[in-house]
């Protein structure tokens, strides 16, 4: 469900405080995955929390308007284990 337009996009207040310092740093860790990406973030790098570790994401023009959580998958890839062949007598 979308957020009401009259409220505007949700951006974590801590994120807006650290924007000035972010240009000097390499990347900023983000735990708020539901924050919306705004045009000020273009070209910056963020470490988005996946629940277990942080994934580095560099923001491009196409990402504006989306959420940070969309670009950091929380589930790992699954593959079936190969079974060993039994020796026949």
Give the SSE layout:
Elements: H1 13-17, H2 19-22, E1 28-30, E2 45-49, E3 54-58
Structural notes for this entry:
Belongs to the universal ribosomal protein uS19 family. By secondary structure, this protein is of the alpha+beta class. 10% of the residues lie in helices and 15% in strands. The protein has 2 helices and 3 strands. Strand 2 (45-49) and strand 3 (54-58) form a beta hairpin. The longest helix is centred in the N-terminal third of the chain and has 5 residues, at 13-17.
Short description:
With 89 residues, the chain is an alpha+beta fold.
Corresponding CATH superfamily of the domain at 13-71: Ribosomal protein S19/S15
Unreliable sequence segments:
none
Distance between the termini: 61 Å
CATH class membership of the domain at 13-71: Alpha Beta
- Coarse morphology: elongated
Q: Could you estimate the helical fraction of the residues in percent?
A: 10-25%
Write down the CATH topology of the domain at 13-71.
30s Ribosomal Protein S19, Chain A
The CATH architecture category of the domain at 13-71 equals 2-Layer Sandwich
Report the major sheet: 3 strands, mixed
């Amino acid at each position: 469900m979308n957020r009401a337009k009259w409220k505007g996009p949700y951006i974590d207040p801590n994120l807006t405080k650290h924007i000035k310092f972010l240009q000097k740093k390499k990347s900023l860790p983000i735990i708020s995955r539901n924050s919306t990406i705004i045009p000020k973030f273009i070209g910056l790098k963020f470490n988005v929390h996946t629940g277990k570790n942080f994934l580095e994401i560099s923001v491009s023009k196409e990402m504006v308007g989306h959420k940070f959580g969309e670009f950091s998958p929380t589930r790992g890839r699954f593959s079936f284990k190969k079974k060993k062949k039994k020796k026949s007598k």
